[in-house]
Amino acid sequence: MKNVVVRNVERAPADIVRELGEHGVATVHEAQGRTGLLQPYMRPIYSGARIGGSAVTALVHPGDNWMLHVVGEAIRPGDIVVVGLSAANTDGMFGDLLATSYQARGALGLVIDAGVRDVRDLTEMAFPVWSKAISAKGTVKATLGSVNVPVVVAGQIVNPGDVIVADDDGVVVVPRKTAAQVLEAARTRVANEETKRKRLAAGELGLDLYKMREPLARAGLVYVDSLDELE
Fold first, then answer.
1. How far is residue 179's CA from residue 96's CA, in Å, rounded to a whole number?
2. Which of 42, 53, 129, 219 is most buried, judged by most C-beta within 10 A?
3. Contact 96/118 with Cβ under 8 angstroms?
4. What is the pTM of this model?
């Protein structure tokens, strides 16, 4: 494949993207049939961030962050930069200077299947990053990659314009074309969970709420009043 920069990316409607982000990773993951979740080694550099945005992607090579500068030109407000590697690597490809540039372009954050550094500065800037590693090891600018092409990140294919939801639970990708349907499923799930939450808060047990007693009995679970009955 040629080394290319794709200028035009079709994104999901902003209101859909924003609301998916508000629902969070766990809800969105469940709402789309437990699919799209990046490997759990992708962790936020600081806790508390929750974002939802459209993916602009970069394909880079180990130890080389050249294309992280190129992708900056493709960022639009509300985007999340998503970086895939051609081979496994943990070098610190991203730091506070690139974050300053991305923030100025309206990026909400970064998801990178490699390393990041300047964590204290990024935290103070409130620029969230989900990464494979934290590493002070620097990189070079020598090898071409591509921008806004499909990339594999932590086990998931991410296409430009897909919706990315990221929080303390990890990162999930929602295909752009199914974003509206996933949002409807997420809304339904949240409403159902709120009903359950009220019942649990009132003291009802999950055993009864989820009607577990009969299947537990069929599976062979037996209740006794004391250990003496087992002798």
1. 31
2. 53
3. yes
4. 0.94
